[in-house]
Amino acid sequence: MRPPTTPEARSPRVARLRWGRVEVEGIARPFRDVKLYPGGARAWDWRETGTAHRPGIQLGDVEELLAHGARVIVLSRGVLGLLAASPGTLPALARWGIPVHQLRTPAAVRRYNELAPATPVGALIHSTC
Q1: Domains of the chain
Q2: Residue 29, CA distances (Å) to 22, 32, 39, 43 in order
Q3: φ, ψ at 12 (rounded to 5°)
């Protein structure tokens, strides 16, 4: 089932990306991995949903972005492309009609920042591997 959404707010831009560090506009502390969504951002703790390089990004992580009002999702595959989505994640988003961009981290950040000013976009950004 698709999670409820909140009123649309602007998605914060990524100000700077380095290996192991993501700086987000309006947030004082940097993140190693980050969940970005309309109206905010928070640390992406893989242990909360069981995300790992294998089996990949879990649907629960993406559902949180949708619950915050995201209508487009950007998934970073890591700088080296080692992180995939779990088998159920992309099919669920397709069923719900949610556009997804799955890219290596530098390209994912660029795409997210392109979309953020005018689109309620959410992203899961992995800053290493």
Answers
A1: 14-35+49-126 (3.40.1230.10)
A2: 9, 10, 16, 10
A3: -70, 145
> 120: which DSSP letter?
-
For the chain, list residues with pLDDT below 50.
Answer: 1-6
Place of tokens 């970005």: 36
What confidence tens digit (pLDDT) does each residue in 101-124 have? 999 999 999 999 999 999 999 999
Confirm if 106 and 80 have CB atoms less than 8 A apart.
no
For residues 27 and 12, the answer to whether their CB atoms sit within 8 Å is yes
Amino acid at 96: W
Give pLDDT, residue 9.
Answer: 87
Is 39 within 8 Å of 6 (Cβ atoms)? yes
**pLDDT of res. 5:** 43
- Both tokens of 117, joined, read 């000013």
